[in-house]
Amino acid sequence: MIQAFIFDLDGVITDTAKFHFIAWQKLAQRLGFDIDHEFNEKLKGVGRMDSLNLILQHGGISLTEAEKENEAARKNDEYVELIADMNASDLLPGAREALEAIHAAGLKTGLASASKNAPAILARLGISDLFDTVVDARFVINGKPDPEIFLKGAAQLNLSVTECIGIEDAVAGLQSIKDAGMYAIGIGDPAVLTLADTVIDGLHQFDLKHYI
Ligand code: G16
Ligand code: MG
């Protein structure tokens, strides 16, 4: 019996990818190259340092560990400035309604985000109190596609994985949900999200009664 839904943040609840893109693009340009939107797709759901490594590889640049730390911190400062203006209007359609419907049915909600900025973003969106538990990148050793983040979400809710459903827009995130042993709802293109048990366009299409 399903007791909880564990949500990814970027691409499911809100679109932070556009802000990450601006900040990563600035970093790439500082180093003398460009990234485009197609390349940005590869960074979705991928943690900060892994994203930086992919970008450096893309630009054919190699940096020392200290230089990487410095660039990642600078990118994050720029990103934090960009998300400071976020508010409830940045919620994706149906996100608040889905969270409220789950609570109204007496079920639980969790967040499993690769972003260390996740709690601040939830606060900006005005939905912190709609999550029973939050697992972000600060609390996991192995990021997505490793199942750790979704396993931890279920454990923090005191539930077994078969009582939880994971919701993700990125292939790496869906891998994480499936390897955790959960049912997976994909958000996006069914041709891309082949790991998902079911795919919807967005949370505006989320219908709780289909899953409980
Ligand atoms: C998000 C984004 C990724 C980003 C990662 C780390 O993951 O999709 O592009 O690199 O967080 O973010 P930060 O630099 O803020 O720690 P998710 O899991 O919310 O989709
Ligand atoms: Mg995502």
From TrEMBL:
GO BP field: carbohydrate metabolic process
Catalytic activity line of the entry: beta-D-glucose 1-phosphate = beta-D-glucose 6-phosphate
Sequence positions that bind substrate: 8-10, 24, 43-48, 51, 75, 113-117, 144
Keywords from the UniProt entry: Carbohydrate metabolism, Isomerase, Magnesium, Metal-binding, Phosphoprotein
Cofactor(s) it depends on: Mg(2+)
Marked site: Important for catalytic activity and assists the phosphoryl transfer reaction to Asp8 by balancing charge and orienting the reacting groups: 113, 144
InterPro entries associated with the record: B-phosphoglucomutase_hydrolase, Beta-PGM, Beta-PGM-like, HAD-like_sf, HAD-SF_hydro_IA, HAD_sf, PGP-like_dom2
List of residues binding Mg(2+): 8, 10, 168-169
Pfam families (UniProt xref): Hydrolase
EC number: 5.4.2.6
Leading EC class: isomerase
Tagged with keyword Metal-binding: yes
Keyword Lipid biosynthesis part of the UniProt annotation: no
Active-site residues from the entry: 8 (nucleophile), 10 (proton donor/acceptor)
Cofactor binding mode and count: Binds 2 magnesium ions per subunit.
GO molecular function, one term: beta-phosphoglucomutase activity
Coiled coil feature spans: none
Protein family: Belongs to the HAD-like hydrolase superfamily. CbbY/CbbZ/Gph/YieH family.
Name recorded for this polypeptide: Beta-phosphoglucomutase
Lineage: Bacteria, Pseudomonadati, Pseudomonadota, Betaproteobacteria, Burkholderiales
